[in-house]
Design brief:
two-stranded antiparallel sheet, Multidrug-efflux Transporter Regulator, Chain: A, Domain 2, about 140 residues, mainly alpha, homodimer, DNA-binding, about 60% helix, 2 strands
Chain lengths: ~140, ~140
DNA sequence: GCTACAATCTCCAGTCACTGGAGAAGCAAG
DNA sequence: CTTGCTTCTCCAGTGACTGGAGATTGTAGC
């Protein structure tokens, strides 16, 4: 049985975050010691690492809840996990293309900047008039 | 003088958002009509469009506050605006590379997936064991 | 046993940039 | 004068934490 500090170190998840995950039902409430401290079984480390890894890939808590449930049940078909992953992938690709459009626009603004006064500043000027900007998705 | 609904339509910023911008001091409080309605001068449209455009490029409110102040004062040097834009550009590039790493990882997970049972699911399996994943920044 | 000090507890407020609902009041047209 | 639209203020919720206050509990050394 591990105390929360130990679990935190072993899993790489901060203590308040572990308590938060418990409060939203993502991590099952552990047993308590006599003095009311949370005492975790060793499997908790794995569960938390799973969660952390999924968070690092940008999955939302709800998706992770599903993914973690599926991981518990090895006989289930894997199509739902697959779907969740594909959905996340699409999200990522949309985000990247939005960011790429922003980047292109900023590069153009900065590149054009004459480093003089505001009145001739391309950065301010472009912000001021959307028409002066590539109508890219941003 | 424009009522808030008109300003909202002309600027493309929602009514509650306009009120929010006023509450945080990003948009100066307009005069009020006898019946306590906000009445905006025509310049408000431009200011709000400026803000909206900057938000679309992902600038934070604090940065926009500075940018909008600079735009008011055309005699100022443009280096600060330039710096703010460069900073945002760096942020974007970091975000893109983080997302690209996530994307690569997900593509690998999904591609490997045999579409069978969870026990052999590469998606779940990879989440379960970080060591099985490219140690890319994600 | 006593004293530090570390670890943990609960509760609550704050982050960021909105968003939307409730309930009241004002305003224009028919 | 009524109907319906717009606007008003206030407040709570979003997602996923994060951190502080103040109280307890546990542990190590003396």
């Amino acid at each position: 049985m591990l105390a929360i500090g130990r679990l935190s170190k072993d899993s790489g998840v901060k203590i308040p975050t572990i308590r938060y995950y418990e409060s939203i039902g993502l991590l099952p409430p552990p047993v308590r010691s006599e003095g009311n401290r949370r005492m975790y079984p060793p499997e908790a480390v794995r569960r938390l690492r799973f969660i952390r890894h999924a968070r690092e890939l940008g999955f939302e808590i709800d998706a992770i809840r599903r993914l973690a449930d599926l991981a518990q049940d090895p006989a289930q078909p894997c199509c739902e996990a697959d779907l969740l992953a594909r959905r996340r992938l699409i999200e990522i690709e949309e985000k990247i293309s939005r960011l790429a459009a922003q980047r292109d626009e900023l590069v153009r603004m900065i590149g054009d900047c004459t480093h003089g006064r505001i009145e001739e500043c391309r950065v301010i000027d472009t912000l001021d008039d959307h028409a002066k900007c590539l109508h890219a998705r941003h």
